[in-house]
Amino acid sequence: MVSEASGSPVLAFEDVHLSFGAVKAVNGVSFTVNEDELFAVIGPNGAGKTSIFNVLSGVYRPQQGRVVLEGRDLLGMRPPAIARLGVARTFQNIELFANLTVVDNLMLGRHQHLRYGTLAALLWVGRARGQEVEHRRRVEEIVEFLELEQWRKMPVGLLPYGVQKRVELGRALAMEPRLLLLDEPVAGMNLEETEDMARYILDIRDELRIPMIMVEHDMGLVMDIADRVMVVDFGTPVAIGTPAEVQRNPDVIRAYLGGDPDVEAAVEAGVEAAIAAEDEGASA
Ligand SMILES: Nc1ncnc2c1ncn2[C@@H]1O[C@H](COP(=O)(O)OP(=O)(O)OP(=O)(O)O)[C@@H](O)[C@H]1O
Ligand SMILES: [Mg+2]
């Protein structure tokens, strides 16, 4: 089991415990994320994946553990402070301003970089003006990077779902993150939208060199693009390794098919088959 990233870690998540009453949402989870790594977190519904993101971004405060970003301890910091240190995220359910345009939603992502006071902003002088121009320039770069040009002046609420997910990614990129958290970036997308999103995620890793943690149920996508994968079940880490290592791990298959009498046969068949069986069961 590979539990350590190979280069120097950007993030260390160490023995984190978070409970809600009797529910152990995160139960002794440890992992590191490397500088140019796409790290995936998978697990059944309610496994604690979003809770890990909420601990990382300061929304939930764990009872125990350490979270260290580039040498700085994040625990106890409030979400805006953590965002300023460079942790940006996209949400499981899109969180954008539906009535604002694509460009304006991206400008809001730059909000934390505004360095001038309100008065200067009102008077539109000096630093305020120079900075506004710079922010617009950065936003236009992101519009181009994510191929959003044709929608840039449109209210986000009118755009196709897959494009809205991309705008949300753009808003996170506008924050110039040191670490990007993607919570189910392709949930609800069709195949074409999923393939587009996969390409943007890989471009973010390879061209922008931003490390990412991706929570995702689309197993094909995870196994295709992630560098390493952590599997959690009932808040507890089951395995960490390369996609190939994780796919062969019998504990992972058992986590997905817990209690199924055919589990040993499924262990033989592999993880993707186990998940397909679970999905069939759910829709039957
Ligand atoms: N604010 C909260 N109050 C109480 N319980 C919570 C809270 N947030 C999460 N939980 C519980 O913690 C557990 C983990 O939830 P979490 O949302 O992290 O799961 P998840 O892996 O993201 O699931 P999904 O795949 O459905 O998004 C669940 O049992 C959930 O009900
Ligand atoms: Mg979730």
Features:
284 residues, alpha/beta, Rossmann fold, six-stranded mixed β-sheet, four-stranded antiparallel β-sheet, 42% helix, binds adenosine-5'-triphosphate, binds magnesium ion
Number of domains: 3
CATH top level label of the largest domain? Alpha Beta
**How large a portion of the residues is in β-strands, by DSSP E?**
15-25%
CA radius of gyration: 20 Å
What percentage of residues falls in helices of 4 or more residues? 40-55%
The computed structural class is alpha/beta
CATH topology of the largest domain: Rossmann fold
Count of alpha and pi helical runs: 12
Provide the list of bound ligands, each named once: adenosine-5'-triphosphate, magnesium ion
**Order of helical and strand elements:** EEEHEEHEHHHHEHEHEEHHHH
Largest sheet: 6 strands, mixed
The gross shape turns out to be globular
Strand order of the largest sheet: 6-7-8-3-9-10
CATH superfamily annotation of the largest domain: P-loop containing nucleotide triphosphate hydrolases
**Mean pLDDT across every amino acid position:** 87
List how many beta strands DSSP finds. Answer: 10
For the record, the CATH architecture of the largest domain stands as 3-Layer(aba) Sandwich
CA-to-CA gap between the ends?
Answer: 35 Å
What are the low-pLDDT stretches, counting only 5+ consecutive residues below 50?
Answer: 1-5
GO cellular component, one term: plasma membrane
Organism: Nocardioides caeni
InterPro entries: AAA+_ATPase (IPR003593), ABC_AA/LPS_Transport (IPR051120), ABC_transporter-like_ATP-bd (IPR003439), BCA_ABC_TP_C (IPR032823), P-loop_NTPase (IPR027417)
Domain ABC transporter: 11-259
